[in-house]
Amino acid sequence: MSKVIFTHALADDLEAYCLRQALPKKLVLCVDKYIDTHFGAALSLELRKKNFTAHKSVIPASERSKSLAMANKLYGEWLTAGVDRSHVVVAIGGGVVGDLAGFVAASYMRGLRLIHVPTTLLAMVDSAIGGKVAVNHHAGKNLIGFFYDAELTLIDTAFLRSLPERDMHSGLAEVLKYALIGDEKFLTFLERHFEDILAQRPPLLTAIKKSVAAKLRIVRQDFRETKGLRATLNFGHTFAHALEKLAHYKYLRHGEAVLWGMLCASALSWRVGKITAEDLKRIAQMVVRFKIKERIAKAYFLECKEAEIINAMQADKKKQDGKLRFVLLEKIGQAALSDEQIEMHKVCQAIKDAKALWKHAGNA
Ligand SMILES: NC(=O)c1ccc[n+]([C@@H]2O[C@H](COP(=O)([O-])OP(=O)(O)OC[C@H]3O[C@@H](n4cnc5c(N)ncnc54)[C@H](O)[C@@H]3O)[C@@H](O)[C@H]2O)c1
């Protein structure tokens, strides 16, 4: 299982890894376009000083990059550049770059070693941990992929200094998920330190470390998502992936969709009698502290018809025998993949509840 290291010296850590594994210092860097523009030259210099050779593929961070077409482009580039199995792929960017580079690393020449260097909060706490790599299909998100663990994830929180507020909020949504599905005390911590975390004061590092530990704890027990446990990490995602699809994978951040998805899933947990009205209220009070532009909330959540959202859910990977399955909260801090058949009118009602809670807080 992948090792996670917190660092402020990437080149040193890459060198130490190659020495430890007795590998030649040959890298394939897959770099987010923004990161390449702002940090690429300095990183290349550091790597040259340590006698690394590196082929670099620069990737526009758009959900559209997570495609078989882009994967095919990278295969071609790497073949032309003579990339072979002695190279180590280093994915430097957010979840888009990590998922795409991981997918290509897993399939190119039957698999190259992979190191993640996450540069968004979302990637640090979620996508760069746990070995899911994928590209999208027009039928739905992340439908073509592998379980392919990175050898190493190197987290340098200094990258977050340039991250826009919108992406901090998006990443924090996945942090909130860990609290809701597994750790009520962590929710109390997030309630207390929400502003500190967004302002990148010390509780941010605590929140990242707790999230990484939570994810590792789950994926170590259920790497291939066969025991139902790992599926709990998908809390809110059945709704979220549908919202992302309706927003053409373009106009919503993943975490924004997950935030509303978690509100819908919490409302559904209440509707089927699992959590109390007080629990739902507490969750809603936390969710509405996240900032999402009114225009975006209207267009990609509030004005989406419930039937359209439900229809867009049908490509969900948790579906079994043609039936949708939902991750529901048993209580705050405990979630499970529900086996019971949930009537669609309750799902529809839960979406309406979530919209009402969002509107009620003055978010639209
Ligand atoms: N594999 C998994 O387990 C997993 C888990 C959660 C999410 N995901 C996937 O992750 C993706 C979302 O990831 P994301 O939110 O990181 O989005 P992203 O990769 O699109 O990055 C968001 C934006 O931040 C920019 N950026 C990256 N680092 C920056 C920095 N340090 N400073 C300034 N800007 C920076 C990017 O250029 C981009 O514009 C989705 O495709 C989602 O499906 C995967």
Structural class: alpha/beta
Order of H and E elements? EHEHEHEHEHEEEHHHHHHHHEEH
**Apparent shape:** globular
Q: Tally the beta strands.
A: 10
Catalogue the ligands: nicotinamide-adenine-dinucleotide
Strand order of the largest sheet: 1-8-5-4-2-3
- CATH C-level class of the largest domain: Mainly Alpha
Radius of gyration: 20 Å
Number of helices: 14
Mean pLDDT across residues: 95
InterPro entries: Dehydroquinate_synthase (IPR050071), DHQ_synth_AroB (IPR016037), DHQ_synth_fam (IPR030963), DHQS/DOIS_N (IPR030960), DHQS_C (IPR056179)
Subcellular location: Cytoplasm
Domain 3-dehydroquinate synthase N-terminal: 58-169
Keywords: Amino-acid biosynthesis, Aromatic amino acid biosynthesis, Cobalt, Cytoplasm, Lyase, Metal-binding, NAD, Nucleotide-binding, Zinc
